[in-house]
Amino acid sequence: MKKYVSLLLVVCLLLTMAACGNSESTQDTSASTEAPAASQSAAAENAESNERPYEGETLTLLFMSGTYADMAREIEASFEERTGADLEIVDFPYAQLHEKMLLDFTSGSAAYDVVSVACQWDGEMAPFLEPLDDMIASDGFDIDAFNQNILDNCGRWNGVIYGIPHANTPYCIAYRTDIVPEDEIPTTWEEYIEVARKYMNPEEGLYGIAPTCAKSQYGAGFYTRIWGKGADWADEDWNVTMNTDIVRWTLESIADEISVADPACLNWSTAEATAAFQNGNAVFLEAWPTLGICLTGDSADSAVAGKWALMPMPTDGTGINLLSGWDIGINAASEKKELAWEFIKEYTSAENQLIAFNKYSILPTRMSVWEEPDVKNSNMYQTKEYLDSSVIWWRIAASEEARAEINNALHPFMCGDISVDEALEQMQTGVENALANNPPEEGMKNTTITTVKALLNQ
Q: What is the reported pLDDT for 51?
């Protein structure tokens, strides 16, 4: 009997162990099913994290209102998708941008991580910008792909790169190809006025020149005239040279220009001057071409569609043109420098420079993009010839004040409110005051006049 009881106990024990074993097996199976799912979820999160390394961060950008800010918004979605970071794009008109940028820099608030800097502000803003040379080197960023004259005038300051050039425009003139024969295209300022006067017909609404004369915008004709004669606002050691025979001739030449223009031009901005030319009311247009005529000149409602072309600014020796350039840099006080650099690389890539050209007529700073069919076959390709002989005015802290003082005298002279002598004296005093208020660094030379003289002697 005991034998059977013992046997029964063994059987029960085996059944119990089997039941336990089945239960544990079931639990293990359940656990093995859940564990891979959790593991897969974590792997997916890690993969997403690797692909979007800046998830949850916000990068704040500061641009001038218009096409440059629009281009930043153009790549906003793709940048956010690639990096995981959100972009906050802030823009102001040119007249306010300098103040907003400088206020943020001097306060140290770092409200903006990335800033688009007008090249004439480079020297003033450089102390507040992050040097990019180390990032360029460590990343293998091909800085040699950019036009070096543009970089020297826009982004590189005292041998250090603080910004990557993202836009440029040589100042040039549009002319009516159906009016001005090819052999009469002017090359000097005297010829320019003569041809304009020859073909103007005010009785039929056709004037010689449509200039941009608004007080805050006129200047290209003034700067390039004195540069063409081998002069500048000051000599190499910053001695002001505004009350001189060359500047006197320049003012008299500008008065001749106004005499062949629509009297209403004295308040025209680029938009109004371009509209006058596009409506068929001028032989020549003197305005930033990529901000106006290159955008709309061949539109369906343009009276000059297919009947205009670009020519360089007239010259009397140097062949020098005025350059507008913008470079994009990183606020040195930003805590998001790596992310900021990622944006700069994407914004200035060859692919995006081509998009910027096609959608917003922003001329490329990478030389390879100039040879893309869309650029090469456009009416803007000719401006490539002017890149290596175009410069900006002073890039020191005194630049904005000096330019404002010149305009404060130039505009009333153009309006006939002050004489040549009064304008010369006012310019001389104004530029002297600007330099006194913001003197250049000790030992720094005026490289603008150095460049002008070098071109004059070629």
A: 77
CB proximity list for 337: less than 8 A, separation 6 or greater: 113, 130, 330
pTM, two decimals, is 0.82
Q: What is the pLDDT of residue 11?
A: 36
In 195-291 the beta strands, taken as DSSP E runs, fall at 207-211, 282-286
Q: Is the dihedral of CA 342, 348, 351, 356 positive or negative?
A: positive
Alpha carbons 369 and 89: distance in angstroms, whole number? 26
Q: Please name each of the domains of the chain with its CATH number.
A: 58-169+323-391 (3.40.190.10), 171-321+397-456 (3.40.190.10)
Type of residue found at 192:
Y
DSSP 127: G
In this structure, what DSSP letter does residue 395 have?
-
Q: How many angstroms separate the CA atoms of 406 and 242, rounded?
A: 9
Residue 296 exposure: Cα atoms within 13 Å on the Cβ side: 17
Residue with tokens 């030389």: 367
CA 192 to CA 188: how far, in whole Å?
6
Cα–Cα distances (Å) from 449 to 71, 116, 230, 316, 458, in that order, read 34, 26, 8, 15, 14
Residue with token string 């024969």: 181
CA distance 74 to 62: 15
The pLDDT, as a whole number, for residue 18 is 38
What is the rounded CA–CA span in Å between residue 218 and residue 266?
Answer: 10
CA dihedral 216, 274, 381, 120 (to 10 degrees): 0
At position 257, the amino acid (one-letter code) is E
* Tokens of residue 118, six digits: 């007008």
Q: How many CB atoms lie within 10 A of CB 59?
A: 22
Length of the chain: 458
CA–CA separation, 204 vs 140, rounded Å? 59
CA atoms of 163 and 156, how far apart (whole Å) = 7
Regions of the chain short of the pLDDT cut 70: 1-50, 457-458
DSSP, res 206: B
Give the strand pairing for 156-157 and 160-161: antiparallel
Longest CA pairwise span in the chain (Å): 138
Tens of pLDDT, residues 79-99:
999 999 999 999 999 889 999
DSSP 63-81: EETTHHHHHHHHTHHHHHH
Give the C-alpha distances (Å, rounded to integers) separating 374 from 20, 128, 359, 431. 76, 37, 11, 43
Backbone φ, ψ for residue 160 (5° rounding): -115, 140
